[in-house]
Amino acid sequence: MPYLEEYRALSASEGFTATIEVSALKHKHLKTLLSTLFEFLPEGESIYPLNQITNIDQRFFISELIREKVFHTMGDEVPYSVTVRVEEMEERKDGTLYIRAVILTFAERYKKMIIGAHARKIKEIGATVRKELELINNRHVYVDLTVKVDTEWEKSFE
What we know:
The protein is α+β, with helices and mostly antiparallel strands. The chain is built from 5 helices and 3 strands; from the N terminus they run αααββααβ.
């Protein structure tokens, strides 16, 4: 470890409150790191409600999750010019979270790729999104996905 001595000298000369050598590969000293971090964190009021797990909007989170699953499912064939618009979210009477979203791309050939033969790709995307959202929300989720071509969608970000 060529930098270990430099690291130790720097941490000693700068007067750090604590230094912890960790190994992410071997998972060494991670508990020590966490306990030390919590020891020095200041107490204070919660910034967000306790049931809020992120600072981003739920629709944005879901649209990015769908987009991620498009990329993951498509592999090397992935059309990177894809965005997702969540058009409807509602809780149904039976407690199911219903989500209707549109996957937008700028060319018909990409639409066909995302849908796939016999709609296999879009079904796989929907199933992986549903499973992850059900884990997060601890309830049944229905994901209704469609794919549309919109040659102008990228201009809305300018």
